[in-house]
Design brief:
Layout lengths: L2 H13 L12 H12 L17 H17 L3 H5 L2 E3 L2 E3 L12 H6 L14 E5 L5 H9 L4 E6 L2 H13 L6 E5 L11 E6 L6 H5 L3 H4 L14 H9 L4 E10 L4 H7 L6 E5 L2 E9 L6
Helix pairs in contact: 1-2, 1-3
The chain binds S-adenosylmethionine.
The site of S-adenosylmethionine has 22 residues, from helix 6.
C-alpha cells in the first residue's frame, strides 16, 4: 500500500469513529497525517513528496494498532505518540501533563504586539502553571536574552517540563520550579508573567469528552466558576512583577464571568490572530496590593 492510500484509509476510519478532536488537530484527515508521519518518521514538510512511497506491511500493522488504541480507548494521539506540536516546535508529552494548545503561544508568535512595546527588552519571565513547560520554552526559543522560570504544583508535570528543557538544551536559560502558585518563588520579580491556569468550571468538567478526561484533572478543574486559580493569581501576583511589568492570563470561554468577578480591575482583553476573549492582561500598577 502507498502512503497516500494509507493516510486516506486511516482518515476514513477516524471519520467513521466517535473520537473527539482538539488535542493537536481538529479533523480526521490531519489526525491521520499526524499518526502516519510520526510513526514513519516523515517530517510534515516532506509528506507531499512521499505520497507514492510504498509502506511495508510491518509499518502498516503498527499504524493500525495505534489507530485502534486511538479509536477504542479514546486516548489523545499526543499521548500515544508521546509528542505534541506548538508553533512548529515538538514537545515530549505523556499523561502527566495537559497536551499543549495554549493561545498564549499565538501571542509569543506575534511578539506580543501591540501589548509590549519591545519584547526584546524583556529580561525575565515566569510561566506559571507550566505543565510541559511549552510556553516558557517557546519564550526562551524566541527571545535569546530572556531568563525563564517555569512553575507548576505537579511534580510529575515538572518532570516532563525538565525533559523538554533538556530536549532544547535550555538548562542555562529555563529553570523548573515545583510550587503551589507563588509559594516557592522566593525573592524574585519578573518583567512578565504568563499563565494558562486550570480554568474549567464544575459543570463543564462533568461534560468533558473522553479524551479530555485522560488529561490530569489538576490541569483543568478550577472550582465552581472556573476562576479559583485565577482569583489567587490576581491577588498574589503584584509583588512578583517588576515595575512596568505585566501579567497575561488565559481563561478559555469564561470572559463574561471574568468581567463580572473582576469588574473593579483595569483589565485588557487581548485578541490574537486566531482568538478573541481568551486572554486578558493586567499591568502591575492595576493589580491589587
Ligand atoms: C491548563 S494547564 C497549562 C499547562 C501549560 N502551561 C500549557 O499551556 O500547556 C494548567 C497547569 O496548572 C498546574 N496547576 C494547577 N494548580 C496549580 C497551582 N496551585 N500552582 C501551580 N500550578 C498549578 C497544573 O498542574 C497544570 O499543569
Amino acid at each position: 500500500m502507498r502512503l497516500r492510500a494509507l493516510i486516506d484509509r486511516i482518515s476514513m476510519d477516524f471519520e467513521n469513529s466517535d473520537i473527539f478532536f482538539g488535542h493537536g488537530t481538529f479533523n480526521a484527515f490531519d489526525e491521520a497525517v499526524w499518526l502516519v508521519s510520526s510513526t514513519l518518521n516523515i517530517p510534515f514538510s516532506s509528506i507531499n513528496s512521499d505520497l507514492e512511497r510504498v509502506i511495508t506491511d510491518a509499518d502498516i500493522k503498527k499504524i493500525d494498532q495505534l489507530k485502534s488504541i486511538r479509536i477504542n480507548q479514546k486516548i489523545p494521539l499526543a499521548y500515544i505518540l508521546k509528542e505534541a506540536w506548538l508553533k512548529g516546535y515538538n514537545f515530549y508529552v505523556d499523561e502527566r501533563v495537559i497536551i499543549p494548545r495554549s493561545i498564549i503561544a499565538d501571542l509569543i508568535d506575534e511578539d506580543f504586539y501591540p501589548w509590549i512595546e519591545s519584547i526584546t527588552r524583556t529580561e525575565s519571565v515566569l510561566d506559571l502553571c507550566c505543565g510541559s513547560g511549552c510556553l516558557g520554552i517557546l519564550m526562551s526559543l524566541n527571545y535569546k536574552n530572556i531568563q525563564v522560570d517555569v512553575a507548576d504544583i505537579s511534580d510529575s508535570a515538572i518532570a516532563v517540563a525538565k525533559i523538554n528543557i533538556k530536549k532544547y538544551n535550555l538548562e542555562q536559560k529555563v529553570t523548573a520550579i515545583h510550587t503551589d502558585l507563588f509559594s516557592n518563588i522566593k525573592n524574585k520579580k519578573y518583567d512578565l508573567i504568563l499563565t494558562n491556569p486550570p480554568y474549567v468550571n464544575a459543570k463543564s468538567m462533568q461534560d468533558l469528552p473522553a479524551e479530555y478526561q485522560k488529561e490530569p484533572k489538576l490541569a483543568l478543574a478550577s472550582g465552581e466558576d472556573g476562576l479559583d486559580l485565577t482569583r489567587k493569581i490576581i491577588t498574589e501576583s503584584k509583588s512578583y512583577l517588576n515595575d512596568g511589568g505585566k501579567i497575561f492570563i488565559e481563561i478559555g470561554h469564561n470572559r463574561d464571568r471574568v468581567d463580572e468577578v473582576f469588574k473593579d480591575l483595569n483589565i485588557w482583553w487581548v485578541d490574537t490572530g486566531s482568538s478573541s476573549d481568551y486572554i486578558f492582561m493586567i499591568n502591575k500598577e492595576d493589580l491589587p496590593n
